[in-house]
Amino acid sequence: MSIDIDNFLETVSTLIKGKDVPVVDLIAVQTKDPFKVLVATILSARTKDEATAKASKKLFKIAPDRKSLDLLSEEQIVKLIYPVGFYRNKARYLKKLPSALENFKGEIPDTIEELITLPGVGRKTANLVVSVAFQKPAICVDTHVHRIVNIWKYVETDTPFKTEMALRKKLPKQYWITVNSILVAFGQSICRPISPHCDICDLKSNCPQNGVRPRKVPGQKRNKSQPLKFISWNVNGIRALEKKGFKDILPDLDADVIGIQETKAQPDQLSEDLKNIPGYTSYWHSAEKKGYSGVAFYTRLPPLAVHEGLGDEEFDREGRVLTLEFGRYYLINIYFPNSGDKLKRLDFKLRFNDTLLSFAQKLGQEKEVILCGDFNVAHKEIDLKNPKNNIKNAGFTPEERSWMDNFIEAGFTDTFRIYNQEPDQYSWWSYRFNARAKNVGWRIDYFCVNQAARENVQNASILQEIIGSDHCPVQLEYLAR
Ligand code: SF4
To answer: What CA–CA distance (Å, rounded) separates 48 from 463?
Structure first.
């Protein structure tokens, strides 16, 4: 049965009263300036609103219009807009913007067709500028809009573009301009991407909750028939991620245990905030070398014991392995070495891999074993966008893939492929060439289990919508009987 969209959008409008308005809408209302709306919209892609607001403020202080933006070098723009996501690409687009606007007599055009000819402007940005800056009918489909209208089964689409087209046919025109602003605020506050707050949502009794796993209510006792949620994430520097809002992202992930890799920090470099996130206990294993490697756990479940490393000095000085021991199972968090430029560290990596396999097999003689982390290898051709071009490159060499074959033959299962055999499912994208936006990536982050643990696996997925690192988190749902 289809939802009553008038009722749903009215209810959402009431629910978000007093919540933060999306930053681009705020800038539109405050400035009524299409130039600033366009620039802020470019900055906002894959970036938290707080960071967009700060970067916009800094940039507009120096470059409030096209002419002053034209006077800045690309490097100056980088410094002003850092740390918004993809700041180098965005600085390049902004540098080119003033000259591109000359085709429109220096003005910001007010049609989607014209706007998408500008550097860094896709359909979503163009729709937002048309609707927010010019108040003309256009439907901007942010990821929140795409996600929520599919949760409601108001549309059934698999890409934001298809959602936009479906909404153009179906959504009453009176909502076109506002739907993005309403659903972004709703998606950021209540209907969150991971574990939405269905407990406080007035739509709960009528919402189809398509594909949703509602958030665990604080203080609620764990239902033992429900699976545990484990997450693994290469954060590419925990201190950098802290600046991008890790403290808020972590509770949203609603994981029972999260293993992180590439912390690039030693304990004395961690803020008290990072070490003490409410509800979680953290454990750290760092490299001797500062700013390098390192793994950590945040856990809600008290472990029986915590084991650092593999028991081999050659590898343990790099802070690559940390294990939590629970009653029935071990959870091993691993940051596998990268084979490096010209494969200089391939031998080291293969020795590490073999030591790790023996370690996991030894633990497997006692209990179920779950391994998570950045394996730094795409196992099969389906696991990366351009297999043919990468055969001789780190992460896809025959040696690394062959080790992964041996690992699977030794009885370990790549849990993601139990549930998903589709291509284009990646967990890492280069920061260069706009790779994430184009989904030119690699699947190198895994949850694997030994045979004893296999029957307890309930689901495995990739959380591509979570930003903050060049990797996204991966997830395992596990029934700890
Ligand atoms: S009930 Fe849950 S899934 Fe449905 S709209 Fe509300 S928060 Fe989102």
So the answer is: 17
Count structural domains, the chain: 2
Percent of the chain with pLDDT over 90: 82
243 with 330, same domain: the answer is yes
Overall average pLDDT of the 366-380 stretch = 98
Q: Whose CA is nearest to atom 1 of ligand 1?
A: 204
The neighbouring-strand residues paired with 259 are 232, 297
Domain that holds residue 88: 5-189
Q: Which of 204, 252, 254 to mutate to test the pocket of ligand 1 (most atoms within 8 A of CB)?
A: 204
CA distance 479 to 118: 50
- The pLDDT tens digits for 26-56 are 898 888 899 999 999 999 987 888 889 999 9
Q: What is the pLDDT of residue 75?
A: 95
Q: For residue 221, is pLDDT > 70? A: no
- Ligand 1 mean position, distance from CA 147 (Å): 11
Pocket around ligand 1 at a 6 A CB cut-off:
151, 190-191, 196-198, 201, 203-204, 207, 209, 212
Q: Looking at the domain assignment, is residue 202 inside a domain? A: no
Q: pTM for this structure?
A: 0.68
For ligand 1, atom 3, which residue shows the shortest CA distance? 209
